[in-house]
Amino acid sequence: MITLVNDAISESAAQFERMQQAEAAGRLSDLEGALASINEIERRRAVLIHEAVHDLNGNVLGVSLAAKVLAAPDIAASDRAGFAKLLEKGVMSVFSMLIDLKELARLEAGRETRQIIEFDAAAMVIELGNANRPVAAERNLFLEVTGPSNLSVYGDPSKVRRLLQNLLLNALKYTVQGGVIMSVGMEKDNWWFMVRDTGPGILAGPGAPMVIGLTEATASARESDEKAASTIGEVSHVLVPAAGGPSEMRPGYQQPGEGIGLSIVKRLCELLDASLEMASSTERGTTFRVVLPRYY
């Protein structure tokens, strides 16, 4: 009897030790995963800072050069006007980047919150189109707006506007010929807006920063959408560029400074529970489509 009791105690102790070891291994795995995630976040942040410093350095160098030329006493009046315009553009470019960095810092720090109210999404898209047509005309581009004349949704209009304006201005900035089309619409319990340009396309090969960023930007929103869809027996329609797809293999480029703009777009999408789709090719340009919940 004593032997049986001792055997039972030994087995229980051994089983308890195995459970402790398994639990410790699980915690270690969780810690290793968390550490890897932190290291990856820090790596991407370092890359973003490097890009920002590089872009700011280029713009400041241009401003410095223009100022030095303008200070020359023997510069012709026609040349002075040209360099003055170059100086103004350089200063505005630096100012714009600083605003973007400030906005990104607020989003990264979690200091932005969403304020949900009812607003007319179609009216916002139309108003932004009208406001930016002079910008398009200055670059000899067209700017069209398609969709319904009104679309009542719930959301944070100021942040939706910032998101749409960011994508629109980026499209106008890098499109050389043709123009930009904005559209808005609704599907089931979601609404969407789209910005399509006829530019040269964005670098979208395997592992490209834009593709990686967009995949990460929509990860949480896509997971939420899939869970919601599964509860009612539907299939999620939230899309990201398909790995190995035709658009992914097309040549293109990613402009300097897009890292900051993309990070702002990512953070705004996360804050608004929105998902982001992108398609890009040298023949058709780039299309961004943002899908948002109609109700929160």
Question: Which strand order does the major sheet show?
Answer: 2-4-5-7-6
Helix content: 55-70%
In N-to-C order, the SSE pattern is: HHEHEEHEEHHHEE
Please state the structural category. alpha+beta
Summed up, the domain count is 2
Rounded to the nearest angstrom, the distance between the terminal CA atoms is 66 Å
- What is the molecular shape? extended
Task: Give the radius of gyration.
Answer: 26 Å
Low-confidence stretches: 204-211, 217-257
Strand count, sense and closure of the main sheet? 5 strands, mixed
CATH architecture of the largest domain: 2-Layer Sandwich
Strand elements, count: 7
CATH superfamily of the largest domain: Histidine kinase-like ATPase, C-terminal domain
Strand content: 15-25%
What is the level 1 CATH name of the largest domain? Alpha Beta
Overall pLDDT score: 75
CATH topology of the largest domain: Heat Shock Protein 90
Give structural attributes.
single chain, alpha+beta, Helix Hairpins, Heat Shock Protein 90, two-stranded antiparallel ribbon, 7 helices, 7 strands, extended
Could you explain the architecture of this structure?
With 296 residues, this protein is of the alpha+beta class. It has 2 domains: 1-111, Helix Hairpins (Orthogonal Bundle), CATH 1.10.287; 117-293, Histidine kinase-like ATPase, C-terminal domain (Heat Shock Protein 90). It is built from 7 helices and 7 strands. The chain has a 5-stranded mixed beta sheet. A two-stranded antiparallel ribbon has the order 1-3. A hairpin with a 2-residue loop joins strand 4 and strand 5. Helix 1 packs antiparallel against helix 2 (77-108), helix 4 (157-174) packs antiparallel against helix 7 (258-271) and helix 5 packs parallel to helix 7. The radius of gyration is 26 Å and the shape is extended. The termini are far apart.
